[in-house]
TrEMBL record:
SUPFAM superfamilies: Thioredoxin-like (SSF52833). It comes from Sediminibacterium sp. KACHI17. This is ArsC family reductase. It comes from the Bacteria. InterPro entries: Arsenate_reductase-like, Thioredoxin-like_sf, Tscrpt_reg_Spx/MgsR. Belongs to the ArsC family. Transmembrane segments: none annotated. Pfam families: ArsC. The lineage of its organism: Bacteria, Pseudomonadati, Bacteroidota, Chitinophagia, Chitinophagales. PANTHER family: ARSENATE REDUCTASE, PROTEIN YFFB.
Amino acid sequence: MYTIFGIPNCDTVKKAINWLKENKIDYQFHDYKISGIDAPTLQSWTEQVNWEIIFNKRSTTYKELPASLQKSITTAAKAIPVMQEHTSIIKRPVIVKKGKVVAVGFDEKKYEAIFG
């Protein structure tokens, strides 16, 4: 079974969930706002996928961080605690199966290739 990590009111997460439902793909949802995210999980993700893909510098949350903090985030190790504290900065959704990141974000064509 797949796990979708995100927040329920995110339009991109909604698109991903709707696509999975339409294609009858079983999943469970991990809500960052309720359950948070632990450092070992983020470490695993950043070892599988470039941390700069997971860490969304285009997000409003990132833009609201102090400039000094933004400048200091130059590695996965520095990004992980920020992602734990500000989960909205994590690119959404992250889809995982058995600990392996299978998708980050939503792209219908990529989903067709991954899940089709």
